[in-house]
Amino acid sequence: MAPVSYTMTMINAREKFIGPLIFPPIYAIESIILSEEGGYKMRLKDKVALITGGGSGIGAAVARRFAAEGALVAIGDVNLQGAEAIALEIRKNGGRALAIKVDVRVKVEVSGMIDEVVKEFGRLDILINNAGVTRDNLCARMSEEEWDFVLDVNLKGTFLCSQAAYRPMRKQKHGRIVNTASVVVRGNMGQINYSSSKAGVIGLTRTLALEYARSNITVNCIAPGFIETPMSAAMTEKTRELALERIPLSRMGTPEEVADLHLFLASDEANYITGQVIFLDGGASLGI
Ligand SMILES: NC(=O)c1ccc[n+]([C@@H]2O[C@H](COP(=O)([O-])OP(=O)(O)OC[C@H]3O[C@@H](n4cnc5c(N)ncnc54)[C@H](O)[C@@H]3O)[C@@H](O)[C@H]2O)c1
Asked: Does residue 136 line the site of ligand 1, with CB under 6 A?
């Protein structure tokens, strides 16, 4: 976010140097400089974005990136401490951010979160359904609790948040929803609950895109591959090695790379894209 203050300094310096009446006008210089500043073009200027699970990993990277692009950011997370730390960091850098404690499995908490965002920021333009969990086990050994927990957070949570976000988005006749699936929808040993939940998110995305289109709300889905976050850090060294062998680009992705795609789908550049699932996986889902 440093770019904004740096940019203002640059504009002031240039204004003094060339004088305010000389072409090109300052607003033109401003837009040129902003577009040159590490890619921060303020593509989400004054948009209100809610990111679930934004207190860690990919969600935190999305929150930072959106704030750097001018969005007012709400971070909903069951881990309030994590959400507050990211919100504080954004505020220190000159942005506006709000942390909200929420368990996305609980309808009343989800609708309270949406109300709080609208009360604080006046609207809701973008919902990033990112909160997610794993509880890995082979099918034969998996408990009902492990199954329910993962399905409830990953799939039901996405449903509840998308349902609650509809009210303000429909009123505005504008909205962007980006859901989170995973490359493991193709199947992965030991993740029957997780891959089923993420495959469900894809079905949800496509149906919701149909239902919400008339309100000018787009619904898309990102399916990340192996991304360096606290979630993937739980992998054993052996699993990590096997995973890397299956990635044509031979490395794990970064949360920032996932945030770049979120930014595109949340921006006006993606106005005509809806119901799509984009794999962001270094090619891991290709081939046999
Ligand atoms: N890291 C990867 O390799 C990878 C790959 C594919 C998909 N994903 C998906 O990306 C998303 C983000 O994953 P990550 O790697 O950043 O994980 P992470 O564990 O770093 O972050 C997940 C966040 O979700 C929050 N959360 C968990 N349960 C919640 C609940 N009930 N209510 C609200 N918040 C809750 C956690 O507190 C945490 O802040 C998840 O949906 C995950 O399934 C991750």
From this structure: no
Is the backbone peptide bond immediately before 24 cis, with ω within 30 degrees of 0? Answer: yes
pLDDT band at 40 (very low <50, low <70, confident <90, very high): confident
Q: For the chain, what's the residue count?
A: 288
Nearest CA to ligand 1 atom 41: 132
Task: Answer positive or negative: Cα dihedral of 223, 226, 232, 238.
Answer: positive
Provide the β-strand partners of residue 50.
74, 127
Ligand 1 test: best mutation among 133, 151, 258, 281, most atoms within 8 Å of CB?
A: 133
Task: State pLDDT tens for residues 191-212.
Answer: 999 999 999 999 999 999 999 9
CB atoms within 10 A of CB 234: 10
Q: Stretch 149-164: mean pLDDT, rounded?
A: 99
Has 27 been annotated as catalytic? no
Considering 40, 166, 194, 212, which one is annotated as catalytic?
A: 194
Dist. CA 120–CA 87, nearest whole Å: 14
Q: What are phi and psi of 24, to 5 degrees?
A: -85, 155
HEC string for the chain: CHHHHHHHHHHHHHHHHHCCCCCCCHHHHHHHHHHHCCCCCCCCCCCEEEEECCCCHHHHHHHHHHHHCCCEEEEEECCHHHHHHHHHHHHHCCCCEEEEECCCCCHHHHHHHHHHHHHHHCCCCEEECCCCCCCCECHHHCCHHHHHHHHHHHHHHHHHHHHHHHHHHHHHCCEEEEEECCHHHHCCCCEHHHHHHHHHHHHHHHHHHHHHHHHCEEEEEEEECCECCHHHHCCCHHHHHHHHHCCCCCCCECHHHHHHHHHHHHCHHHCCCCCCEEEECCCCCCCC
Give the span between the Cα atoms of 207 and 199, in whole angstroms. 13
